[in-house]
Amino acid sequence: MVSLKEAQEKISRYQVLGEKLKMYDNRRQLLAARLAEVDMCKSTLDEIENDKETIIPIGGGVFIKAIVKDVDKMIYMISRDTGVEMDRQKVKENIQKNKKTLEEALGMIENDMMKIQEEMMKLEPEIRSFIEKQQSG
Q1: CB neighbours of 124 closer than 8 A, spacing ≥ 6?
Q2: pLDDT of 62-73, one tens digit each?
Q3: Spatial CA neighbour of 5 closest among 13, 15, 16
Q4: Among 102, 99, 85, CA closest to 42
Q5: Burial state string for 115-137 with b = 16 or more CB within 10 A and e = fewer than 16
Q6: Which end of the chain is more exposed for a tag (fewer CB within 10 A), N or C?
Q7: Domains along the chain?
């Protein structure tokens, strides 16, 4: 029979795992959104041409239509506040590296989430059994 202390520890562990699972799910959602953004950027880089009209974000969810004169030179942000001028091919290479990194991170998070869910599933019957015994006794 499970002691009260053991049951409390299992319940506490279950709650901690639940919070951890929520945190990982938030990270997973953020990574998935960034991955979608990278895919959109990749397709835009393939389609954009010199002297053609395109839509350019200016921030705050606002976009303007513009004709881009030189799509072979771009500013690639290497940090939140620092951009470097690169040619289109180098930008594509960096985006592909970024995509691979995001996919790997997403895979690791999903793997960790599965492990947490498995551990929670193992704890559930033990906790349920203890609660049922407490209610009947």
Answers
A1: 14
A2: 999 999 888 889
A3: 13
A4: 99
A5: ebeeebeeeeeebeebeeeeeee
A6: C
A7: 4-136 (1.10.287.370)
